[in-house]
Amino acid sequence: MGLIKGVLKLTTYGGLASAGAFFYTTRNDVFVPMSPTDPIFQSAAYRKFNPEQNPTTHDLCVRKVPLSDINPTLLEKKGKLAEAFCAGVWSGWGKHGTLHPE
Question: Is the pLDDT of residue 83 over 80?
């Protein structure tokens, strides 16, 4: 009985911690509805992968970063800021540490 009780506690606390972490990390995100007339839905790639014009589920998540938080060395060479952004998005837990000097 002690094992079942322990597993139940662990899953309950784990679920609460996961939900809390999700809401904490997404607290500054804003979801903006996209219009069906958006140019992305008129692109050749979109038409290629959705030839039957099936309905989609889409949204746009916007997160504003103050200019003072951006490392000035990323602005010296064209493309470095985009490279740092992509590294932050695709490198694990999504830490945006590449935009901040450490």
Answer: yes
DSSP 1: -
Q: From CA 27, how far away is CA 21, in angstroms rounded? A: 10
Q: Tell me, what DSSP letter sits at residue 94?
A: -
8-state DSSP, 37: T
Extract the tokens encoding 15: 């679920």
**How many Å separate Cα 74 from the centre of its chain?**
21
pLDDT bin (cut points 50, 70, 90) of residue 92 is low
Name the residue among 64, 62, 102, 98 with its Cα closest to residue 81.
98
Report field, pTM of the whole predicted structure over 0.85:
no
CA distance 75 to 64: 17
Assign 57 a pLDDT band (cuts: 50, 70, 90). Answer: low
